[in-house]
């Protein structure tokens, strides 16, 4: 895959206003339930969100469930080998059908035993023969729009939204040499946080805090920013070796065939609105947020390695330091962001001046603001943005 030569680092990537005049977003951006409700309607239910990896549901009958802003979801691999996504509730009276993950030959409602085939069609509905005009075909599981990219599963509640590849723009050109499609997920954790969903992603896209919040782990970092096309942002933390472990030589070699730009550091990307993919020289990890309320979010953290690495006899031992790093840094970030959320709730809190290292924070704020009702944005801006 050829690299787009327009994707070269720039000192700063600013949207208006210029450096020196730019301020952090109004506190209501993170604390107002009305803003959160508008985000659900105009952003989360209209854009692609990350739902997992295909290797989590590899065989016929395999399933995985998850919660989303739009409600409970199931991913199911059919007998025909096709992966599908459905709303995870019964068409009778909306009982949840599946929980967790596992394998099943069919899907049976635990409430009234309506049962569904793995392709979502209704197979049986006890007692409904006596109901006039009842027919099975219209009452199958409700499908959710799904597209795959390099083994990653994305869902969208809006059937009229642009396709996933249009949404990603030129992201695949910058990170293509990492060959994410040849990787497999080996680790995952979830953290319930008491902060707004945007704070988690803003934190993940600036290195201003790393020498302070992560002084005992990753330490100070420096990064460069890139202009992008599509609904994504990227910085690259400069280091010629992987920063996916703490204070030691990386246990795995660099992925073969990385571009010269990819060899120079780790790409921290955000695919709007809710997921960060991080590409180090030897692995990939993600931070995906699931908004629950204006001040509550579930943070999903997971990691992938090239399949060949996972087949090494000492893979588990080598991978341990990566898992330790991902968990430790995530918990450090959550701790400081929960404190930030409390500070934002003060009646005296006002937008503060941004550093040049907050360039992506500003860019991400503008992406969200541009998709909210103008009247709501104007009302927030009257608070001092």
UniProtKB/TrEMBL annotation:
GO molecular function, one term: dioxygenase activity
InterPro entries in UniProt: ARHD_Rieske_2Fe_2S, Rieske_2Fe-2S, Rieske_2Fe-2S_sf, Ring_hydroxy_dOase_asu_C_dom, Rng_hydr_dOase-A
Keyword Ubl conjugation tagged: no
Reported cofactor(s): Fe cation
CDD domains, per the entry: Rieske_RO_Alpha_N
Keyword Repressor: no
Pfam families: Rieske, Ring_hydroxyl_A
SUPFAM superfamilies: Bet v1-like, ISP domain
Keywords recorded for this protein, A-Z: 2Fe-2S, Dioxygenase, Iron, Iron-sulfur, Metal-binding, NAD, Oxidoreductase
Residues annotated as domain Rieske: 48-155
Identification of the protein by name: Phenylpropionate dioxygenase-like ring-hydroxylating dioxygenase large terminal subunit
Organism: Ancylobacter tetraedralis
Source species taxonomy: Bacteria, Pseudomonadati, Pseudomonadota, Alphaproteobacteria, Hyphomicrobiales
């Amino acid at each position: 895959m050829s690299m787009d030569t327009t994707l070269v680092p720039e000192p700063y990537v600013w949207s208006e206003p210029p450096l020196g005049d730019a301020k952090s977003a109004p506190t209501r951006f993170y604390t107002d339930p009305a803003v959160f409700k508008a985000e659900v309607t105009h952003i989360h239910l209209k854009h692609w969100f990350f739902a997992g990896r295909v290797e989590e549901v590899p065989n016929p009958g395999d399933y995985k469930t998850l919660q989303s802003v739009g409600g409970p979801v199931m991913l199911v691999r059919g007998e025909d080998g096709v992966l599908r996504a459905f709303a995870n509730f019964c068409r009778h009276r909306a009982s949840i059908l599946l929980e967790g993950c596992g394998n099943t030959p069919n899907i049976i409602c635990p409430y009234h035993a309506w049962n569904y085939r793995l392709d979502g069609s209704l197979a049986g509905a006890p007692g409904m023969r006596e109901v006039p005009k009842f027919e099975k075909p219209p009452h199958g599981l409700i499908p959710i729009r799904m597209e795959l990219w390099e083994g990653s599963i994305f869902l969208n509640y809006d059937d009229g939204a642009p396709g996933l590849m249009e949404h990603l723009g030129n992201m695949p050109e910058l990170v293509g040499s990492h060959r994410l499609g040849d990787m497999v997920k080996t680790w995952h954790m979830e953290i319930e946080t008491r902060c707004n969903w945007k704070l988690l992603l803003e934190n993940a896209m600036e290195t201003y805090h790393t020498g302070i919040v992560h002084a005992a782990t990753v330490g100070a970092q420096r990064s460069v920013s890139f202009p992008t096309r599509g609904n994504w942002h990227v910085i690259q933390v400069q280091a010629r070796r992987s920063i996916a472990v703490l204070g030691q030589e990386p246990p795995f070699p660099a992925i073969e065939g990385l571009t010269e730009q990819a060899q120079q550091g780790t790409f921290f990307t955000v695919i709007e609105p809710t997921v960060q993919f991080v590409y180090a020289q030897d692995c990939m990890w993600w931070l995906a947020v699931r908004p629950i309320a204006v001040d509550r979010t579930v943070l999903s953290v997971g990691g992938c390695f090239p399949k060949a690495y996972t087949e090494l006899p000492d893979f588990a031992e080598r991978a341990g330091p990566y898992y330790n790093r991902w968990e430790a840094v995530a918990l450090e970030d959550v701790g400081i962001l929960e404190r930030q959320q409390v500070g934002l709730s003060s009646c005296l809190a006002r937008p503060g001046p941004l550093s040049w290292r907050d360039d992506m924070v500003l860019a991400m704020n503008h992406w969200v603001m541009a998709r909210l009702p103008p009247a709501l944005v104007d009302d927030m801006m009257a608070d001092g943005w």
